[in-house]
Each structure stands twice: as C-alpha cells, then as structure tokens.
Give the backbone structure.
Amino acid sequence: MTGQGRLAAWGVGLAALVALPFVYRDPYHLHILVLILIWSFAYTSWSMMGRFGLVSLGHGGFMGIGAYVTALLWNHAGLSPWIGIPISMAAAGALALIVGYPCFRFRITGHYFVLVTLALSGIVLQVITATRDYTGGSLGYTPNRASGNKLLALQFDDKTTWYLIALGVWLFGIVVWHWVDRSMARYALEAISEDEDAAAAAGVDVTAEKLKITLLSALMTALAGAIYCQYQMFITPDTVSGIAVSLQMVFAAIVGGLFVSLGPTVGAIITILLAETLRIGFGTKAVGWDNLVYGVLLVLFIIFLPKGILGSLLDRLKLQRKVPRAHEQKAVQVARPGT
Amino acid sequence: MQALLDVFDIYLLEAVINGILLGGVLALLALGLNLIFGVIDVTWICYAELVMIGMYGMYFMVQYYGISYFVAAPLTILLVAVLGAALHYLVIAPLLTAPPINQLLATGGVLFVLQSFATVAFGIDFRNLGIRLPVLAFGDMNFSYARLLSFVAALVGMVAVYLFMTRTFTGTAIRAISQDRQIMALMGVDTKRIYLITSALGGALAGLAACLLVLQYDVHPFVGLSFGPITFLICVLGGLGNFIGGFIAAFVFAEIISLGGLFSDLEWGYVLAFAFFIVMMFIRPAGLLARRR
C-alpha cells in the first residue's frame, strides 16, 4: 500500500468503527467491543516499552494505581474523575520515575529489570490488599453511583457512549504509537536495545531515553486502568493489578505482534474473544480453560512465531519489498548484564 | 495465610525464630531456582506452580489413596522432578538459543497452563491434608511442629544437594557448566544430559518444598502466587545463580516478612519486603554477594 492508500484505509476503517454503534445496538456485543478497545489500549501502552526490549511486569501496578486512585478520590474526596484521572496518572508516572530512574541509571537490564518490575506490581497488589479498610481488599471496590451530573462523574449507562470513549482512547494509543515510531526516540531506543554501550558512545542519553518511554507507557497504562474502572464500576486487585495482569499484557502483545501498531489490538481481540467463547460455550465448566488455552498458545507462539500473528502476516506480505529492520529479526532483544 | 497470622504472636523473639523457620523453606525454593538459573541461564517464572502441583500430588495421595505421608513424599518429589525435566525438554530446550526474555515469557505461559490446569482438574476449593501437627510450647512462645519439621527437612535437602554437587562427577560437571557453558561441551560433557539432570534436580527441590509447604498451607490453584514472587526476589537479591547469596537473602526476607507481620498485617510484611528489595537493587544491583562478571 502506498502512503495515501494506507491513510484512506485507516479513514474508512475509522468511519466504520465510529458508525458501528449507531447501526448495531446489541448491548452484549458492544460490551465486548468496549472491553477489547480498553484492553487494546492497555496492551498498546505496554508494547511501547516492550518493543524496545524493556520487558516490564510492573504494568499491572500502574494499571491498578490508575483504577484505584481514581475510584478512591471519587469516593472519599468527592473529586470528579476528570481531575482524579490526571492525578492517578501522575501518581503512576511518579512511581515509574522513582523505580525507573535508578534502574536505568544503574543499568539494571534483562532478567533483573523484569524481576524488579515484578516486585513493583507485587507491591501495588499487596498495598491494595493491605489497605482493605479503604480499598475493600480482595473483595473489590465500587465507585459510588453519581447522583447528579453523569458527565462530571464520568459514569454513563448506555454502551454507545462508552464505545465512543473507548474508541477515542484506543485511537489515541495508536496515534501515540505512531508518533513514537516516527520520532528520533525510536532510533535511539532501538540502538539502546541492541547495545547500550555502543548507543551511549554514539551520543544517545540512555537513561533519559529509557525514562521517557517508561513514563509515557506508565501514564497510558494508568489511563487504561482508570477508564476500565469507570466503565466496569467494579474493580478487584486481581483484575487490575498484580502479576497476572502484567503477564496478560505481555501475552496479548506477543500473540498479536509486538512490532506493529495494531499487534496488541489483534492480541486483545484474540484473547477476549477466546475467553468469551469458552465462557459461553462451556459456562461455569469453562473456569480455567481460557487461561489454559492462553498459556499453551503463549508457549507455542514464543517457540514458533515470536513475531506474533499480525507481525508474521505483514512480514509475509512485504517479504519481497523490504529487508526487515535489524531489531525485528528476533522477538525481543535485550542487552544482558555483562555482555 | 491465616495459620501464619495466628502463629505470629506479640512476642518479638517468637517472630524472629519463626522468621528463621520460614527462611529455611524459602531458602530451599531459592536454591532450586538458583540452580536452574546458574546452570541453564533460564528463570522459571512458573517455579512456584511446580510446587503447587506437588502440593496437589501430596494431597491426593494422602487424602484420596490413603498413602502414608512418608511414602507419598518421595513419590511427590519424583513426580515434580519428572515435571521439571519435561518442562525443560518441551519448552526450554527449543528456546535455548532464543533471547533470554523469550525463555522467561515462555515459562510465564507455563505458569498460566499449570494454574489453569489445576483449576480445571481440581477446582478452586481450598484443600488441606487434614494432618494437624501439634504446637510446641517453649516458655511463652509457640512454634508449630510443621514449621520445625519443614526447617529441618529443608536444611537436610540443601545439605544433600551440596554433597551431590561437590562429591559426585555429575555434580562437578553441573558446577563446571555453570562457569562456562561453551567450554564444557568441548571437554566431553553432554550438556543436554546435564541440563535435563539439573532441571530434574530443580524440580525435585520444588517437590520437597511442596511436601513441606502442604503441612502448613491449604492447597488451591493460586497458592503459587503467594510465595512465587518472593522466591524470585530472594534469588535476585542474592544474585541470580549465587547459591550462598540466595541462602542469606532467604533469611533476610523471611525476617522482614515475619517482623513486618508482627507489627502490622502480614501484607505489610510483604510490602516491606518488596520495598526493601527495590531499595537493595539500587544499592547492590547485582545482588548481596555481587559476583560481577
């Protein structure tokens, strides 16, 4: 596709997506679409870091902060989510900087980075559980229903509004992805993921570049958490924070394709449809089956198709036209300590 | 978890000693994970889930088939050892040359598989052995026999591994491989076989831990999440692949959890431990006993 053709395709696709809820009103299907869009946004946020070899298992923590801070501010301080969401994003961003700066400064990479971020999501999960007097602990938490202005409380009853909000947020995520993809930061980060020392020698400020992308990714993930909370009106520590959520992000991004903008979206479509199909097909007997299938798929994908479904598909399409970029040849390149 | 909470009384000394007892089992878990990492250079994110499967093995053998605990224990260790070898053969071996993060994520997939397999096969009920060991009263302090037994068994297990690693040819080969992966293959050591043996050994340690943990905790499919993350943190804090560092870190962590739990909720003990870990990562990025390469 040429540049213009691609733009036209995006335009048509978007117009169709915006028009969808006005012609098709089945609430269940719209609900699934909203979930897919919100989770796609979260997965896209994760992949912004993940594609540069910064594999974080701490994003469950950022998402949990986004969801819980927004809900707590609304219930306890009466702050509208319009103010609460920016505050929760700032909180997640601050946490990302506090953990990220020393990590990058002291060059904690590879396994070590994964496990430090794992500790981060563990902390957030445990803090939410431990402060059960405020957060309801493992039993979950519900933002109070708004009595007055629905818009002010960011609570809507109809699916169409939520669909459009989720669509907007998702589109925002894709736009940011492309913005990063075209920026100089991308080249810097690619260089860093190949070889930190060489990148630093070539004049890349390694710590600053990594911090910027981490901050961006954490902010977006917190936003995803807040939107999810506002839509579902019920959150538990296990659905928005913790290792399971972090692994779910990694899984979806890898299955869909880490190096293409729509990869995480494809991952979200596959995982959510799979879970829903199993749930409807088998009812309560299906408890656990969806994760079983996820797990097997994840292992198979990493062994046989490390670029994900969409990534491999696009590769096949443009095989003759273009030599793949260096960083795309392996799934996730990570600088290892000491090498 | 509740059992743990009950054991924590208001006494500081009791908490300290309980921390040491907890440290024994954690050290055992960390040893298995360190062994795998040191030799094969892979982190098994699903390590705690192997323990969980072992705990279910114990539960079914003891509760359903009425096998005595001491007969079931070796069987469980064998079962988990086979699982460990299978994990290596099926998942890790095809990925040996892949980027390390992919190996880590693949075992993350195995984590999902094992957890949901347990959910599908055994349901989400909490189960326990029904063996309630008596409590040892020592002055004003109470210690459960289960913890004492675990501590002693964990120590015996660690000594056994130490002897295996230092006194047998295979053990020597394993240690040699962990020092230099490429050269040992040239020296006539069958690395594939050594990797399989190491994985089985790591699995066996998980099996032993399962036999001990099942005495103290109820089994459910997500039990792995309650001590899995802690185990990774211990290994990283001690320096991945560093056996002695892991051993020390296990006790440091256990004390933090135990004492934190004494002054507040158990969760805050965990929060403290996690926060301590993150701070330590910045002070000593390569672990307590840094073995800088």
The radius of gyration of chain B is 19 Å. The first helix of chain B runs from residue 2 to 7.
